[in-house]
Amino acid sequence: MKIRLWVLCLLLIPFLTCGIPQAQCESPESEIQNPKSEISKGEAVKLFADANENYLQAMKLLATKNTAEADRHLREATAQYETMLTGGFKNGQVYYNLGNTYYRRGELGKAIVNYRRAARLIPRNADLDANLRLAKGATEDKELSTEIPVVVKRIFFWLFLLNRNELSIVVVSLYVALMIVLFVSNIRKYAWLRRVFIGFSSALFIAVVSLGIKIYLEQGVNRGVIVTSKCEVRYGPGEEYEPKFEIHNGSECVIEDEKDDWYRVYVKVGVKQDTGSDASPGEKVSSDVRRGWLQKKYVDMI
User: Fold this and answer.
1) What superfamily does domain 41-138 belong to in CATH?
2) 49-70, pLDDT tens digit by residue?
3) Dihedrals φ, ψ of 173, to 5°?
4) What is the pTM of this model?
5) What is the CATH architecture of 223-275+283-301?
6) Are 158 and 213 in contact (CB under 8 A)?
7) What are residue 190's phi and psi, to 5 degrees?
8) Between 286 and 71, where is the model more confident?
9) Secretion signal: which residues (predicted)?
């Protein structure tokens, strides 16, 4: 009995001392903090405030049709947000604000890639979701709908409402709770503890699987966004290969392979077809999955 209790205690110690702080090392909230950054917290706070002020000034100038001065403020705000990120302050609110700035500048690709980065850190932000849909709707290439059904999002709500760090905290918390239940069950033989143990075990299994899926989707699948007005996707990795099709600013792709300065990408886009004389007005869009090679300089990784 004593040996089993000591084993349980040893299992708990590493999670109680280091598990939870590791999961919380990158805050999903708007608070600015990162101990490994190259710039101080005070400098980051000032940059963030100055960038926000530049953005607000730009909005006021756009309202008065002073586009030249507004563009200057937007460029300054962009540089300040980028300085924070390159300095080590990876923060969802900064990515979101930077996406808004790029959107106002008409750079849809860079806006979308920063919205996507922000969504990984602040997944429950309604404004972010709305702005991402707005930016996607303004792109030239109308991609196939890849929206996950609402019923799936409601059933597996935790997978979509929690970011990776929050899921890590849930996993650690459930593990600690499970170890406490196991510890108590070795001291007190209550029948209901068995049911509690099964419940926590099931919850822990689901949380671990969900965390694995989250990590795979964010790190196991390389995704990118086109950040140039137009680029040619070719049959092979080189200028000597003929173009296969064109893809435009803001289109998203899955990067399957790379060779030298080229990516092999997978994209889903709509193909305009002749609707025929008896068809209703408008354009008919059919689904087409396309693969090809494009230069790395045209893609920004999410």
Assistant:
1) Tetratricopeptide repeat domain (1.25.40.10)
2) 999 999 999 999 999 989 999 9
3) -65, -45
4) 0.78
5) Roll (2.30)
6) no
7) -90, 140
8) 71
9) 1-23
Number of DSSP helices (H) and strands (E) in the chain, helices first: 11, 7
Both structure tokens of 128: 């972010």
In the structure, what pLDDT confidence band is assigned to residue 221 with cuts at 50, 70 and 90? confident
- Alpha-carbon dihedral 145, 147, 149, 150, rounded to 10 degrees: -130
Q: Of the candidates 211, 30, 243, 39, which has an alpha carbon nearest to the alpha carbon of residue 128?
A: 30
According to DSSP, residue 290 is labeled: E
Any idea how long the chain is? 302
Which DSSP symbol is given to 89? -
- Average confidence score pLDDT of the chain: 80
Asked if 293 and 241 touch (Cβ cutoff 8 Å), the reply is yes
Closest CA to 48 of 77, 90, 86: 77
Given the DSSP bridges, would you call strands 243-248 and 252-259 parallel, antiparallel or unpaired?
unpaired
Based on C-alpha coordinates, what's the Rg of the chain? 24
Instruction: Report residue 223: phi and psi, to 5°.
Output: -120, 150
Kindly state the helix (H) or strand (E) to which residue 10 belongs, with its residue range. helix 2-14
All structural domains of the chain with their residue ranges: 41-138, 140-220, 223-275+283-301
DSSP for 224-247 reads EEE-SSEEEEESSSSTTSPEEEEE
| Tokens found for residue 34 | 């990162």
Confirm if 272 and 198 have CB atoms less than 8 A apart: no
* Residue showing tokens 């001065």: 69
Strands 262-273 and 284-295: antiparallel
Task: Give, for 158, the enclosing helix (H) or strand (E).
Answer: helix 157-161
